């Protein structure tokens, strides 16, 4: 009965296949490093302080274009000569004051607009609060924000703003000052304000009010807000084009190789083995991840794309992590009985993966699921939510590291198991010994590639969690993660899974005759299949099972 291609493919053909795959991997890194821009772009916008004399919250105030608002500066806003008069009128001014942001900002007198390739938008507020002795700010203030977001498109009149979302939100603002001197500014924490799952429109307008109410003690102890900044973070359109192009290329290749693999499996007289089922599940998860759904966002408003992307990523992680455990376990033979392998033998390992992925899904739904209805919602607005989110991210990183070390331990045990059984090789015939030595060498190389892929996946997962959360707790707002790493890891997943499906596909080559062995060149010897149990797909697993030979 034939074995798998990993065992039967000639050394020369295997070398050509590996070389092609390595070239593809290098190209993915080079595309990210030389062609793709940074994954995300941040732009800071200074608010225009608009005066709303009627305190009409339903009116849109915008700083540019026909019908723009009446703007006021700090001197006009706080330019009182009498302290008592200042205190008496300050609340009225605060309720009539609207911080207006019209994004994106023009550049070199050119009106810019958002592109649908930019996919998503995150808004973060930064406060410039000036110190005044007669109105010192509390170290911690429960801030009430009345935020309204609008949009318009090219060709619309300047005042044709349409409501996108509105909400009255509470945020905790922590501020400190090293030296209390008039004219100096507090150092305040950043405040996550909104997150949009799609950038379907050309222009956006944000109106922010900080209402003051003495009876309800709304925004008491805030101090003098000199300026308000909005940091707009969006995915770079150039990076999206490169990312979707990679998906477009990989998508048909993975589908094609899966169809080819499944046809070869069904040509055999036996039923598919566990590892073959796992390869199909892994291929399906990768296919779901590879689907270039981003093309749909160019025509339709799909605010759920961020959530859908996280779900696709989570399904792939679950399939990949589960496959590695089964892949190592099948060669380690963690089951004690001689029964046919099944997922029941790995229920402890897979349960841990399932719980971890389910926790990620629940955490994601708690924020991005609610943001589908209210983009101003954030789990980071309270101390409990912030601590919970940070704890979850830290635990996720630790769990990923623990998983990698556990997988490394399993692979090390596989190597020890196989090395111990190599003592039986000298007693075998030369053809059988040559077969097993070749298979063991190839298998060890594949397992080392698996470890490398696992390490890069864990690093990518941790960096992804950190880069996603940095806008919510990091005050520096630095973009440090390169496109080359993300495109390289993504390409590595496709190259690695493509190689697994090809190398573990059933081979049609049969056991060669003795005359064929004598007439073959040494590099072209086909490592053919040895007779094994019909449920097995690799002679190496059979070799590992035969403990009686030790």
UniProtKB/TrEMBL annotation:
Subcellular location: Endoplasmic reticulum membrane; Endosome membrane; Golgi apparatus membrane; Postsynaptic cell membrane
Domain Wntless GOLD: residue ranges: 48-235
Record family assignment: Belongs to the wntless family.
GO biological process: intracellular protein transport; segment polarity determination; Wnt protein secretion; Wnt signaling pathway
Location (main, coarse): endoplasmic reticulum
Record GO cellular component, one term: presynaptic membrane
Organism: Diploptera punctata
Domain Wntless-like transmembrane: 236-508
Function in brief: A segment polarity gene required for wingless (wg)-dependent patterning processes, acting in both wg-sending cells and wg-target cells. In non-neuronal cells wls directs wg secretion. The wls traffic loop encompasses the Golgi, the cell surface, an endocytic compartment and a retrograde route leading back to the Golgi, and involves clathrin-mediated endocytosis and the retromer complex (a conserved protein complex consisting of Vps35 and Vps26). In neuronal cells (the larval motorneuron NMJ), the wg signal moves across the synapse via the release of wls-containing exosome-like vesicles.
Record has Amino-acid biosynthesis as a keyword: no
Protein name per Swiss-Prot or TrEMBL: Protein wntless
Record text on subunit structure and interactions: Interacts with wg; in the Golgi. Interacts with Vps35, a component of the retromer complex; wls stability is regulated by Vps35.
């Amino acid at each position: 009965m034939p074995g798998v291609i990993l065992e039967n493919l000639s050394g020369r053909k295997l070398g050509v296949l590996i070389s092609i795959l390595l070239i593809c991997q290098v190209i993915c890194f080079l595309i990210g490093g030389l062609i793709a821009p940074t994954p995300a772009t941040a732009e800071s916008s200074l608010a225009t302080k608009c005066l709303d004399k009627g305190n009409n919250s339903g009116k849109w105030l915008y700083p540019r274009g026909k019908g723009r608002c009446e703007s006021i500066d700090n001197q006009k806003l706080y330019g009182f000569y009498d302290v008592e008069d200042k205190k008496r009128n300050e609340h009225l001014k605060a309720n009539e004051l609207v911080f207006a942001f019209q994004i994106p900002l023009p550049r070199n007198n050119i009106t810019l607009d958002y592109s649908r390739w930019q996919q998503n938008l995150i808004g973060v507020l930064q406060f410039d609060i000036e110190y005044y002795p007669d109105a010192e700010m509390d170290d911690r203030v429960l801030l009430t924000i009345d935020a309204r977001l609008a949009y318009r498109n090219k060709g619309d009149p300047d005042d044709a703003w349409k409501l996108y979302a509105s909400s009255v939100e509470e945020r905790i603002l922590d501020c400190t000052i090293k030296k209390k001197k008039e004219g100096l500014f507090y150092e305040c924490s950043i405040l996550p304000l909104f997150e949009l799952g799609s950038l379907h429109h050309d222009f956006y307008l944000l109106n922010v009010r900080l209402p003051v109410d003495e009876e309800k003690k709304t925004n008491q102890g805030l101090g003098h807000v000199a300026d308000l900044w909005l940091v707009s973070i969006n995915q770079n359109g150039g990076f999206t084009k490169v990312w979707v192009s990679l998906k477009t290329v990989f998508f048909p290749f993975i589908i094609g190789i899966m169809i080819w693999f499944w046809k070869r499996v069904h040509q055999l007289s036996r039923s598919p083995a566990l590892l073959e089922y796992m390869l199909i599940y892994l291929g399906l998860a990768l296919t779901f991840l590879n689907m270039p759904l981003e093309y749909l966002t160019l025509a339709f408003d799909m605010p759920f794309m961020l959530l859908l992307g996280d779900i696709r990523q989570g399904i792939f992680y679950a399939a990949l992590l589960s496959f590695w455990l089964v892949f190592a376990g099948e060669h380690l033979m963690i089951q004690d009985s001689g029964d046919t392998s099944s997922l029941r033998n790995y229920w402890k390992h897979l349960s841990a993966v399932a719980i971890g992925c389910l926790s990620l899904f629940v955490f994601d739904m708690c924020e991005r699921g609610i943001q589908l209805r209210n983009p101003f919602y954030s789990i980071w607005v309270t101390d409990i939510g912030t601590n919970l989110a940070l704890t979850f991210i830290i635990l996720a990183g630790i769990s990923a590291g623990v998983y990698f070390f556990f997988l490394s331990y399993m692979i090390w045990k596989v190597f020890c198991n196989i090395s111990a059984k190599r003592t039986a090789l000298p007693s075998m015939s030369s053809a059988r010994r040559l077969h097993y030595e070749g298979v063991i060498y190839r298998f060890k190389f594949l397992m080392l590639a698996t470890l490398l892929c696992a390490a890069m996946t864990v690093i990518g997962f941790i960096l992804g969690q950190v880069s996603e959360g940095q806008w919510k707790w990091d005050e520096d707002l630095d973009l440090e993660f390169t496109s080359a790493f993300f495109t390289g890891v993504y390409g590595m997943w496709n190259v690695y899974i493509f190689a697994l499906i090809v190398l573990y596909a059933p081979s049609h080559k049969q056991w060669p005759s003795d005359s064929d062995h004598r007439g073959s060149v040494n590099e072209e010897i086909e490592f053919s299949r040895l007779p094994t149990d019909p449920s097995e797909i690799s002679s190496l697993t059979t070799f590992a099972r035969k403990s009686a030979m030790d």
